[in-house]
Amino acid sequence: MALHHNRASRLTTAPGFARHGAASCAIWLAREMPVLLEGISALVGLEPNRMTARSPRRSEQEGKFWKTKALEEMSNAEWESLCDGCGRCCLNKLEDEDTGRIYYTHISCKLLDAGLCACKDYPNRSAQVPDCVRLTPDNVRSLSWLPHSCGYKLAAEQRDLYWWHPLISGSSETVHEAGVSVRGRVEASEDTVPDEELENHIVSWPAQLPRRAMLKKRPTK
Ligand code: SF4
Ligand code: SF4
Predict the structure, then answer these.
(1) CA-to-CA distance for 112 and 126, rounded, in angstroms?
(2) Distance between terminal CA atoms of the chain?
(3) Residue closest to 112 by CA, chosen among 97, 99, 94, 128
(4) What atom in ligand 2 is closest to the CA of residue 126?
(5) How far apart are CA 42 and CA 155, in angstroms?
(6) Beta carbon of 186 within 6 Å of any ligand 2 atom
(7) 136, 155, 154, 159: which is closest to 18 by C-alpha?
(8) How far apart are CA 101 and CA 191, in angstroms?
(9) Pairing between β-strand 3-6 and β-strand 91-96 as defined by DSSP bridges
(10) What is the pLDDT of residues 126-156, one digit of tens each?
(11) Does an H or E element contain 33, and which?
(12) How close is the Cα of 155 to the center of ligand 2, in Å?
């Protein structure tokens, strides 16, 4: 298996145009299929394990800007606010050159503050990390390494945001509470891990969601 180093990144404001469906992640699908089906069933109004459809339930998020606006129509502030602050996109990834399959590692970009789950020099990130990929309305729809829970992906698909997204919870802490962020899970910065050793740091959790994160509402403690 020939693996190719691939870096991800966060946002920017840029007008995009084309529309394309998001790619699926094989690791996530394999591990989370039962939960995924349950979640999809709830979203589209299908009862789990049954083939009958109910009339779709109206989302409480109808009318919110991420449900009504195309990515290209959003203001700068709206675009920026779609980021949930998970930090998953700032983990180093490996791509199988033969199959295109993406493998996440728990090694972060050198500019990621793994505690805050934020870029240490966001305004100058491109100068400091030239292969940091700026998200745009166009590439959000096609980048296969963006996690499925990413606020940009969800908005591109006009799906509901999860309960732990700051736009829903009103708090930047819930992404950590839900176990979605990389806080406490980054093993090391790329500064300290040679490229040829990245293969030893492949992990599956960045492509998955904990059960509590998949719930419709914030669980009571
Ligand atoms: S929501 Fe998470 S994966 Fe998406 S851009 Fe923000 S930090 Fe990255
Ligand atoms: S430069 Fe900043 S935004 Fe880009 S991948 Fe690194 S930590 Fe993330």
Answers:
(1) 13
(2) 44
(3) 128
(4) 1
(5) 18
(6) no
(7) 136
(8) 24
(9) antiparallel
(10) 999 999 999 999 999 999 999 999 999 999 9
(11) helix 26-44
(12) 21
Total domains, the chain: 1
Q: In angstroms, what is the span from residue 152 Cα to ligand 1's centroid? A: 7
Structure tokens at 139: 């590439």
- pTM of the model as a whole: 0.78
- Residue 193 · residue 107 · CB < 8 Å: yes
Identity (one letter) of the amino acid at 100?
A: G
Rounded to whole angstroms, the Cα distance separating 56 from 66 reads: 19
SS3 53: strand
Q: Could you tell me the two tokens for 1?
A: 């298996």
Q: What is the pLDDT of residues 47-106, one digit of tens each?
A: 333 333 344 578 999 999 999 999 999 999 999 999 999 999 999 999 999 999 999 999
Domain that holds residue 67: 3-13+22-214
Sign, CA torsion 114/135/23/95: negative
What is the C-alpha to C-alpha distance for residues 54 and 67, in angstroms, rounded to an integer? 22
Is position 187 within any domain? yes
